[in-house]
Amino acid sequence: MTLNYIWIGFFLVAMLVALIRVLGYMFGGYLEPLLGYVFTEADRDVFVAMVESTFEMAMISVDIAVYLIGVMALWLGIMKIGEKGGAVSGMTRLVMPFFKRIFPGLPENHPAFGSMTMNICANMLGLDNAATPLGIKAMRELQEVNPDKDKASDSQIMFIVLNTSGLTLIPVSVMAIRAAMDAANPADIFLPIMLTTFFSTIAGLLIVSAIQRINLFNRVVLGYVGGLSLVIGLIIWAFSNMASATIGVVSTFAGNLLLFTIIVLFIFLAWRKKINVYEQFIEGAKEGFQVAVRIIPYLVAMLVAIGVFRASGALDIIVSAIGWTVGLFGVDTEFVGALPTAFMKPLSGSGARGMMIEAFNHYGVDSFVGRLAATFQGSTETTFYTVAVYYGAIGIRNTRYTIGCGLFADLTAVIAGIFIAGLFFG
Length: 426
Hints:
Elements: H1 2-26, H2 28-35, H3 41-44, H4 46-85, H5 87-102, H6 112-124, H7 128-143, H8 154-165, H9 172-180, H10 190-212, H11 219-240, H12 244-272, H13 277-312, H14 314-327, H15 339-344, H16 349-363, H17 368-379, H18 383-394, H19 402-425
């Protein structure tokens, strides 16, 4: 219901702001001295701009969805190869010692370990829609050992917070949209997203572990977290000592090298098992086609509403107000234009995607704001949506502290994203 009210709110607020602008133009002589604002013909024609925006954003949403069909089919096909070739089970074995420590209430070798690993892997590859059915499967398996079927268990809360913190390795959909909008280097946000989502995941892990009194100070957990933190720290240190032009070149090279290496590794492992790689790819690609087609109504709905909201001038008013407030403290306000994406992401993935695309259209896909919006979009998951879907699928009514911990991870991603995008693109 939250998204329903947000969607309605976009139109109602847009209508109110537009009426104020038109009335201001008509009675500008009385209002301009009071408001300190000069009304122009743009204010008079605001309704024209809003209606034109509905057609424009509807067309853009379909164009993007058509482009996504190929990309989603490609990566779901690759994921299917990875599953059949044993890459996913191999990942499960790699993380099992760590998972056993942070899910102490889950019996050893429980099937939920495999489902959670596959879900997290899908999220790491940026395949949000592919991750959802795997996450629901994991929640059902976790529900089997939940003593109170109406209340979220500790294991379920940990899993959802790690899920919503959105540890991303390959932000496929974000890169695909950037490519569709003619970004010079669609993969240049690869490392910034990876770094940002690392910090949000660590924040989620720390706050849930603190509440559940999980001891993270043991050799296994410290080994995993410490090793990953060391790698991330070295990456940040290395890029902080590079010229800005060099950072872009190295980031693009490293991102594309890793992308292609994963594809080749999945194919090789499946071929070694004598699996018909081509047939498995086709099976996965069929799912990708269906996922991409299902996105179209959501894109149209959200992009049209957001387009109207921006055309009315309401979004500019909000962003300007935040920028003015931040500027009072002497802080650089360039990042403010990307904040609508960050605000929307916990509520709706499609809404945040729409905000990101609007930032691309308004500021430029290769602008600092555009890249920061892409970083926000790729660095966390939709907290409220994930909670509603995952808990709703198993009938959980009492979510306990899940949302609070998820939003804490989201806030960490916003703060980290601003500093990291400034390092890479500032």
